[in-house]
Amino acid sequence: MASSYFLQGKYDEVLVYLNSIKAYHQQDDTFSFNLGQTLLMCKQYKEAEEQLLAVTGQERDKILYRSMLARTLIQNRKPHAAWDLYARTKDTKEAFYLLKLIANDYYKAGEYFHAAKAFNQLEKIDPSPEYWQGKRGAACGVFRHLFHGRVTPDQMSEILGLLERDNHPQADFVVSTIRKWAVNHKIDLK
């Protein structure tokens, strides 16, 4: 029944079934992975992370596992840990897929500093306009966070450095706008 409900997208129902047999599957990697995925879909991120980290076998090497864990880590405000998952991925195709996933998830979660860096990396691999737009949007999000005191001037400077290395015509406009604002507000950006 749990599998049927999972395929139907009825994750709350899946959780009822999986929790009813949880005590019998404490050391079962497949069960922990399935419960972790379900908890992620139910937005119970802390519990999802615990279940996914309980997986100890070969599942850990699969891209689906890494993807689910990365999403959970981002939602639990551990963006560095999600980036480490990407950095440790040896297969080029899987690394690109994971980088794309975490860039978008960083952005959705409002982790704009990390999103800008991830989109920058994607743009180096594949100079698609989509990745430039993601990086530009994330850079503007970092600026917004600077305005509200959620990032440091050094972090903003790092993102401006990424934009300044671009040959994109909009990069100059974004950089100059942010730098003018910083000068007017006596914020030192390197």
UniProtKB/TrEMBL annotation:
GO cellular component annotations of the record: ciliary basal body; ciliary base; intraciliary transport particle B
Subcellular location: Cell projection, Cilium
GO molecular function: intraciliary transport particle B binding
InterPro entries xref list: TPR-like_helical_dom_sf, TTC26
GO aspect biological process, one term: intraciliary anterograde transport
Alphabetical list of SUPFAM superfamilies matching this protein: TPR-like
Name the UniProt record assigns to this protein: Tetratricopeptide repeat protein
Similarity comment: Belongs to the IFT56 family.
